[in-house]
Amino acid sequence: MEYDQLKAMLDTHCCAQCEKPLALVWDSSTSAHALVCGTDRNHAGYKTIESPGQAVARGKGDKALGQGAQKDMEKALAKAAHPLSLLAKDDLGTGKTIAPDAVAALVKWGDSLGLKPYLGHVCLYFGKPYPTIDGFYYKIVRDTTHLHIGTRPLSKEEFTTYQVPEGAHAWLAEAWLGDTKLPTTGLGIVTKEEIEGKSDRNQEQYRSPVVHAHPQRMAEKRAEWQLLRKLVPPEEVKTDG
Ligand SMILES: [Zn+2]
Q1: Are 130 and 222 in contact (CB under 8 A)?
Q2: Distance 143 CA to ligand 1 centre (A)
Q3: How far is CA 42 from the centre of its chain?
Q4: Residue 25's CB: how many other CB atoms inside 10 A?
């Protein structure tokens, strides 16, 4: 990882294990700068610092906003004028608007798994329903307290190993159960074409303005979501805690 990239992550990421701030140190064993947990050097992994809204979506509102906040927020959101406002309106794979009957089916599916569709916990991906990153965290990671997930950009060597095309952004998501690193990983890539590609309908516009503006964050989210999908097949989300 490049020094500038590591330095920028001090502001956006925290320790994946204890959620405390990271520190940038010189690692003499590898003769390179490294990001470590500022509290315990043995901790592994980095995660994006959650906003209060994300904390609620992931079922951690009490921790972020105080005891009872999670229940209060869920009640308020469920009763809001547009209770499904956090639900993605487009299929994440095809980009097409989800038809009203498909939205209803998706909401029913989410409810049956104990997820909260109005918190944005479910989505359609090429016509198939999946929990979102927040949905997975809400249901699984909350119940499996020793599981933590970290994300980081690929190193230069890994760009070669994974044969990432030139100009692409690539992130890796890794998981630990306690101190043990799991072999399952998630890889998220955003290609140069995706970043620079222009809309078919309007050559003045980017095909995906979000990807163009935040390619790193998008690659990171893809890695995280792929890892969560591998770790927890959707059928297993059913286990109600
Ligand atoms: Zn830590």
Answers
A1: no
A2: 20
A3: 23
A4: 13
Compute the distance between CA of residue 107 and CA of residue 25 in angstroms, rounded to an integer: 46
Q: Buried b vs exposed e over 99-111: b needs ≥16 C-beta within 10 Å?
A: eeeebeebbebbe
Task: For 179-208, write each residue's pLDDT tens digit.
Answer: 888 889 999 999 999 998 888 888 888 888
CB burial readout 128-161, b (16+ within 10 A) else e: ebbbbbbbbbbbbbeeeeebbbbbbbbeeeeeee
Can you say how many angstroms the Cα of residue 59 is from the centroid of all Cα atoms in its chain?
15
- Biggest distance spanned by C-alpha atoms of the chain: 59
User: What dihedral do alpha carbons 81, 107, 89, 48 form, nearest 10°?
Assistant: 90
Q: How far is the CA of 13 from the centre of ligand 1 (A)?
A: 11
Q: How far apart are the first and last CA of the chain?
A: 38
- pLDDT tier at 52, thresholds 50, 70, 90: confident
Quote the ligand 1 centre to 34 CA distance (angstroms).
14
Residue-by-residue DSSP string for 195-230: HHPBPSS-TTSBS-HHHHH-HHHHHHHHHHHHHHHH
Residue ranges per domain, the chain? 82-131, 138-241
Give the environment of ion ligand 1: residues with CB less than 5 A.
Answer: 15, 17-18, 37, 39-40, 43
* Predicted structure pTM score: 0.75
